[in-house]
Specification:
The complex is a heterodimer of chains A (about 150) and B (about 140). Chain A has about 150 residues and is mostly helical. Helix content of chain A is about 70%, strand content about 0%. With about 140 residues, chain B is mostly helical. Helices cover about 70% and strands about 0% of the residues of chain B. Chain B is built from seven helices and no strands. Chain B is globular and about 45 Å long. The two termini of chain B are about 20 Å apart. Classes of the chains: A mainly alpha (about 150), B mainly alpha (about 140). The interface between A and B is medium-sized, with 23 and 18 residues. Chain A: InterPro entries: Globin, Globin-like_sf, Globin/Proto, Hemoglobin_b, Hemoglobin_oxygen_transport.
Chain lengths: ~150, ~140
Amino acid sequence: MVEWTDFERATIQDIFSKMDYEVVGPAALSRCLIVYPWTQRYFGNFGNLYNAAAIMGNPMVAKHGTTILNSLERGVKNMDNIKETYAELSKLHSEKLRVDPDNFKLLSDCLTIVVAAQLGKAFTGEVQAAFQKFMAVVVSSLGRQYY
Amino acid sequence: MTTLSAKDKEVVKAFWAKVSGKGEQIGTDAVARMLTVYPQTKTYFSHWKDQSPSSPSVRKHGITVMAGVGDAVTKIDDLKGGLLSLSELHAFTLRVDPANFKILSHNIMVVMAIMFPKDFTPEVHVAMDKFLAAVSLALAEKYR
């Protein structure tokens, strides 16, 4: 089981409680599709992903970005149970969506950059460490049910 | 991975022109973050008395690293050739595992996002990511 310090728990709760999922989600997902264009392979039915402007204006990308953040919130609310929280989603990503788990880390890195830009100086090294630890646990749980 | 397109080089040079004035600050914060967020990187600095983020050693090293990045921008058309001696330094003397170049690159970009949130757009992000990856590759050139 993952051990969380008081600082880490408080930091994660704080970051997500102040976050506007409808801004951060779309920003993180579109950034991922732009910076790591091979991730677009999973979004063939999303329409126009032809260039950065199209991606950033794409309503399906925006909606899915928000969905992802809402899903992350479940992990935030169940920090002592993240593996179980994402067991079903892991199966979905493995069996139905067939997403290479390496991609989870790419999206996670983009989310880190977006959160960093939002929080500015408040995103200290210690806060970054806590955030990245949380994301690493989520990413690991998402890859857990692959076989 | 991929070579830098003309557009990538343009974007990198333009963004670097904007931010190079804060190079020392970027470097110091990036190195400090790396040591905090990825504690395994501290193993390369056991010779420092003080490994804390505010130590003068961290600042000095951040300045050194960022000067290297700035130099790489001027040699963007031939990174392998231009960074040859730096590669030899990292290969034979420092022997830093190249996986760590990725870690430091990530932290450099986090700091850029913090300090220049409006300028570090997705287009700048992808060009910078490619550039730092190309620099890392050039640094690893002489390893084996």
